[in-house]
Amino acid sequence: MQESDPNVYESLARGDLDGAPLPRVEHALLQFVETITKHAYRVTDEQVERLREMGWTDEQLAECVYIAALFAFFNRVADAFGIEFPTNFGTLASRDGDPQQSDPTEGTP
Fold it and tell me: Helix, strand, or coil here: 44?
């Protein structure tokens, strides 16, 4: 999923999955990621089967689980050590591929 629509990026950055203009199959996959992230024990066979019916392969679903789990690990390690969110994560790629730098002083006291 390599979205160039800035509305997708903005919605996902706000945590607004339902507001992101995504295709139905990608939306369903991100709902799966949300379930894994918030409460992985609630993933059901029915949820996985529905994703398969949409065309996602078992390999893609396994990769999705691994990536979600790795990010959960990284976030917990960062939180435990108090690692700050880097300000250069605010860099957005423009439609022509050139990065638009955020103000490096933004958010600093």
Answer: coil
